[in-house]
Amino acid sequence: xxxxxxxxxxxxxxxxxxxxxxxxxxxxxxxxxxxxxxxxxxxxxxxxxxxxxxxxxxxxxxxxxxxxxxxxxxxxxxxxxxxxxxxxxxxxxxxxxxxxxxxxxxxxxxxxxxxxxxxxxxxxxxxxxxxxxxxxxxxxxxxxxxxxxxxxxxxxxxxxxxxxxxxxxxxxxxxxxxxxxxxxxxxxxxxxxxxxxxxxxxxxxxxxxxxxxxxxxxxxxxxxxxxxxxxxxxxxxxxxxxxxxxxxxxxxxxxxxxxxxxxxxxxxxxxxxxxxxxxxxxxxxxxxxxxxxxxxxxxxxxxxxxxxxxxxxxxxxxxxxxxxxxxxxxxxxxxxxxxxxxxxxxxxxxxxxxxxxxxxxxxxxxxxxxxxxxxxxxxxxxxxxxxxxxxxxxxxxxxxxxxxxxxxxxxxxxxxxxxxxxxxxxxxxxxxxxxxxxxxxxxxxx
Length: 446
Prior knowledge:
- With about 450 residues, the protein is α/β, with parallel strands linked by helices.
- It folds into 2 domains: about 5-180, Glutaconate Coenzyme A-transferase (3-Layer(aba) Sandwich); about 195-435, 3-Layer(aba) Sandwich (Glutaconate Coenzyme A-transferase), CATH 3.40.1080.20.
- It contains 16 helices and 24 strands.
- It has an 8-stranded mixed β-sheet, with helices on both faces. A 7-stranded parallel β-sheet has the order 4-3-2-1-5-7-9, with helices on one face. A 3-stranded mixed β-sheet has the order 16-15-22, with no helix packed on it.
- Helix 15 packs antiparallel against helix 16 (about 425-435).
- The radius of gyration is 23 Å and the shape is globular.
């Protein structure tokens, strides 16, 4: 049988493909642009036939039909490995649960039998001449889902960019059913417009970066600003080993800042596990051998990432307390995002020779009622999840400066954190530090 004959034999409608799913099944699907669309809609249409179908996704950027059409969760139970803004709202409606995970460990859960999917569902690129479907710009755990699912359904999108790398594809022989869509538009995330606070924070961080560093940036206005500052500063010989590839990396590459020549792993390559940005980014990735996608089990593994000297990891957080406990995923019981790769890269950067892990945040936040509160707090509120324990925190940066916390005692940590808190909150923070026994009379605030 030729590849084309096998393709035609397995090609069915979405409605036909989802007939393999039965009550009690566990389904895993890919994330970001790899999330199935027609298959999701077809499965949702079967809701009255099914009960207790468990679906695991991650960072959904578009509405999920199985969730929206089953508001009482009688038929489908959805959970996510990392919340998007949409999933956060689902959680507020009690329609989404969270799967705690350090990103580099997720594939291990399948390998050890902690997660046993009956059906894997992925949106993929068209089949190539050798019978392979590329997963597109989201390797994450896609290869693992295919390897450990009893049945595999792929939804072919002709608009999906081909991302070259390792474990970035599956063969038609591993696929049970193929569904074609006419070209579901790719999810685009435009770079956030940086605020003046973002610019101030970036101005402190840019001083920590030198020629030859290996860069890992998160998502949002701040990383975009840092990328532009790097491009304008004319830094050279930078490497890329990052969880997320964003438009700011294209800026840096086009400015001649990135060549990967000082890297140890995947030298001369821009290594990443998923990409999320504009069409410009997806066009840059497509069939580009300079870009190297790989599973999170590789990219986010501290033992791998830390081999690159001068690894600079820059990520955001929601708040930090005076004991240096960092929360990046929840606030007083409300789940916001997830652990993601923050712990992975905090560990990797500090393990790296000359590396630095930087947690960045604005010093204050504005609540819905207009109240301004400090992001540096005496203690985390009940129900707030600790993403980084205090021992793992290296550097923290706000618009008021950047401080190094490794090796510091509790009173030294409190002093340094208060020095970069908003001035309006420093006196109260000092009082609380004194009450908690982590303040000395000799302490000073710059």
